[in-house]
């Protein structure tokens, strides 16, 4: 019953706070039709990302993990002025769907979609001297520690870094898990604490979430030192 109730509450909140949006709804349909996994952020979570990026006045946004571009659309709409979202996607097939969704939303000039393994793409951003105001990490969980290291290297002081899917229906508690994703999340949380308590690089927290996407969580941090 819990999942039914969580989904119903999400639907109620969405009815009150999220007006119908043809571009976003079309993006989700296009993702389904293309057979992409249904792991996009929820509409309410997308609006949260939008608001967080707006709160920091983000002009340059980094997204690690594009999938079909649903969250990318939310982030591109949040940009201040002549900003840009750089979004990294491993799968060419997913990237092709994302490009169509972004184009259909009228945001192609706001998005720089790069295909390839993120850990191979991120060094190029550093070489280009790009500095980001907001970073959203939602890719393979086993690489989360490396993604955090790169996020802290590429983000300005005062930037926000958000990392999705950190609770995994409570499985994050399993220290004996041999699931690479759980191992990656636990290592990410260890590193997140070290970067906060020992190196003072950022200040972070994590919250559990329930809703249409089930039971999971989100880590959010503010970059305090370069």
What descriptors fit this protein?
globular, Rossmann fold, 8 helices, 7-stranded mixed sheet, 226 residues, 7 strands, single chain, alpha/beta
Please give a structural write-up.
By secondary structure, the chain is α/β, with parallel strands linked by helices. The protein has one domain: Rossmann fold (3-Layer(aba) Sandwich). Helix content is 46%, strand content 23%. It has eight helices and seven strands, in the order H-H-H-E-H-E-H-E-H-E-H-E-H-E-E. Helix 7 links the parallel strand 4 and strand 5 (155-164). Helix 3 (43-55) packs parallel to helix 4, helix 6 (118-128) packs parallel to helix 7 (144-154) and helix 7 packs parallel to helix 8. It starts with a helix and ends with a strand.
Instruction: Report the span from N to C terminus.
Output: 46 Å
User: Strand order across the biggest sheet?
Assistant: 3-2-1-4-5-7-6
Strand content: 15-25%
Tally of contiguous helical segments: 8
CATH topology: Rossmann fold
Q: Any chance you could write out the topology, listing elements then pairs?
A:
Elements: H1 2-17, H2 22-33, H3 43-55, E1 60-64, H4 70-78, E2 84-89, H5 92-104, E3 111-115, H6 118-128, E4 132-137, H7 144-154, E5 155-164, H8 180-197, E6 202-211, E7 214-223
Parallel strand pairs: 1-2, 1-4, 2-3, 4-5
Antiparallel strand pairs: 5-7, 6-7
Helix pairs in contact: 2-5, 3-4, 6-7, 7-8
At a glance:
The chain is an alpha/beta fold.
